[in-house]
């Protein structure tokens, strides 16, 4: 079952750049970039939690199961 991270779309909806999200979360810009391009092969739960808290979204909004 493919898993897709909708981070790029969510950032566009909220008018935020990847760089701004990296600054707000303290995550590495490369991590944000991999998540936005769906090239990440693994993700820490802490990373997902940090992104969701920062963007004020639920995990179900960030992750899409195909």
The low-confidence parts are none
* CATH architectural arrangement: Orthogonal Bundle
- Major beta-sheet overview: 2 strands, antiparallel
Q: Helix tally? A: 5
What is the name of the CATH class?
Mainly Alpha
Kindly state the percentage of residues in helix: 55-70%
The radius of gyration computed from the alpha-carbon positions, rounded to a whole number of angstroms, is: 11 Å
- Tell me the strand order in the biggest sheet: 1-2
Tally of strands: 2
Mean pLDDT: 95
Remind me, CATH topology? 434 Repressor (Amino-terminal Domain)
Quick take:
The chain has 66 residues and is mostly helical.
Q: Describe it for me?
A:
The relative contact order is 0.27. The radius of gyration is 11 Å and the shape is globular. Helix 2 crosses helix 3 (29-36). 59% of the residues lie in helices and 9% in strands. With 66 residues, the chain is mainly alpha-helical. The protein has a single domain (3-65), classed as 434 Repressor (Amino-terminal Domain) (Orthogonal Bundle).
Features:
66 residues, mainly alpha, 434 Repressor (Amino-terminal Domain)
Please render the helix and strand layout as text:
Elements: E1 3-5, H1 7-14, H2 18-25, H3 29-36, H4 45-55, H5 59-62, E2 63-65
């Amino acid at each position: 079952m493919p898993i897709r991270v909708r981070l790029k779309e969510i950032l566009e909806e909220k008018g935020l750049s990847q760089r701004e999200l990296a600054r707000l979360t303290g995550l590495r810009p490369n991590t944000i970039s991999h998540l936005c391009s769906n090239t990440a092969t693994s993700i820490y739960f802490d990373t997902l939690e940090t992104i969701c808290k920062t963007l004020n979204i639920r995990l179900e909004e960030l992750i899409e199961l195909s």
